[in-house]
Design goal:
The protein has 226 residues and is α/β, with parallel strands linked by helices. The chain contains ten helices and eight strands.
């Protein structure tokens, strides 16, 4: 199941600004996306067919959402975070990823977003409302509260979420004494799981993640079907 951002992929009659609906600019935040996921899961709980077992998976910004969700969903059996630098504040992650000129602008932008968190101000493809919500969030702080198996997957060539920010998330888990967190750093791959020649290895990465999940299924006699 894929849970998308508010205001994306629907014609709600609001004006389109910079390729997105005004509803997106006015409402979308990381916190809202977490809340939307929790609402979907609450609906699943009412379905007679659901076995109350779920794997939380997110990549890039969705990886931050997955980390934030991890301790909030008691039915979660595993969490996978792909290409997401969860170990530092989001604002610090962005400053590490953008060109130097944009990084120099960031402190003033973040201050302006805190002062006036609306959908009218925009920077880096996101609204001031989004920045006000996200800048100080460190997703790994939530992730380390989870007790289920966690897999962090990151490409060493990632320029969108520098590998140091992913390593910081794993280090936070280790420092917290967590033994349920595994970190896989893929030396030749970038943010999109591509090698330098452009070959896409995402299918293999996802297959390996599925194998990791399968290996962590508990015997049926102990825990039922996973």
């Amino acid at each position: 199941m894929l849970i998308d951002k508010v205001g994306v992929g629907s014609d709600d009659g609001t004006p389109v600004v910079d390729g997105c609906s005004q509803r997106y600019w006015d409402q979308y935040t990381l916190s809202l996306r977490v809340q939307d996921c929790l609402r979907v899961i609450a609906d699943l709980r009412r379905q007679s067919w659901w076995n109350r077992r779920i794997v939380i998976f997110g990549g890039s910004e969705g990886g931050a959402v997955a980390a934030l969700l991890a301790p909030l969903v008691p039915e979660a059996k595993a969490v996978i975070v792909l290409s997401s630098g969860t170990g530092v504040p989001v604002g610090e992650l962005i400053r590490a990823a953008v060109p130097p000129a944009m990084a120099a602008e960031a402190p003033a932008v973040f201050a302006a977003a805190h002062e006036r968190p609306t959908g009218q101000g925009r920077w880096g493809g996101l609204s001031y409302r989004w920045w006000d919500d996200a800048v100080d969030i460190v997703p790994a702080r939530s992730l380390v509260q989870s007790t289920v198996p966690v897999l962090l997957i990151h490409g060493a060539r990632d320029q969108s979420s520098p590998v140091s920010t992913a390593r910081a998330g794993y280090e936070m888990a280790r420092n917290a004494g967590k033994t349920n967190v595994e970190y896989r750093e893929l030396a030749e791959l970038d943010h999109f799981m591509r090698t330098a020649d452009g070959t896409n290895h995402m299918d293999q990465v996802l297959d390996d993640a599925a194998t990791w999940i399968e290996a962590r299924k508990q015997p049926r006699r102990l825990a039922g079907r996973f």
